[in-house]
Amino acid sequence: MNNNKATVKCSILGENFTLSCNKDDEVHLRDAIKSLQESAKVLLNANPNLSPQQAAILTALKALTQKKQLEHASAPFLRILEEQLDVIESVIEGATVSAEPHKKVS
Predict the structure, then answer these.
(1) pLDDT for the residue 2
(2) What is the extent of the structural domain holding 17?
(3) Helix (H, G, I), strand (E, B), or coil: what is residue 24?
(4) Which residues contact 1 (CB under 8 A, 6 or more apart)?
(5) In a domain? residue 20
(6) Is 61 part of a structural domain of the chain?
(7) Looking at the domain assignment, is residue 99 inside a domain?
(8) Distance set, CA 77 to CA 66, 82, 89 (Å)
(9) Which of 6, 15, 79, 95 could covalently link to 26 via disulfide, CB atoms 3.0 to 4.6 Å apart?
(10) Number of domain units in the chain
(11) Which DSSP state fits 104?
């Protein structure tokens, strides 16, 4: 196995998975698995007539909805950041670099 890869075994809604990811992403993957398991469990406890497949789909929709909400909420901040970066870039482009040393004025 590649030394930069990690293997994570888990069970989600009764299905067993062996997943691989970069070692740097292993903690994030384990956190995502735990969050998915908890969300599916809460959903199934509240709606015992759902099948595991229905619970998986609804859990995925909830996660994607939350992602979109976060993206939408952060959009104004990203726009402001982009505007500020544009200002900084124009200042840098407008700056001139002098190769002559500064002369002391007496």
Answers:
(1) 62
(2) 5-92
(3) helix
(4) 7
(5) yes
(6) yes
(7) no
(8) 18, 9, 18
(9) 6
(10) 1
(11) P
Asked whether the CA dihedral 23, 25, 28, 29 is positive or negative, the reply is: negative
CB 5 within 8 A of CB 20: yes
Query: How far is Cα 60 from Cα 37, in angstroms, rounded to an integer?
Result: 11
| Residue labelled with tokens 């595991």 | 52
**DSSP character for 34?**
H
Per-residue pLDDT of the chain (106 residues; tens, 9 = 90+): 568 999 999 999 999 999 999 999 999 999 999 999 999 999 999 999 999 999 999 999 999 899 888 888 887 887 888 888 888 877 777 765 555 555 565 5
* Residue 9 covered by a domain: yes
CB 3 within 8 A of CB 22: no
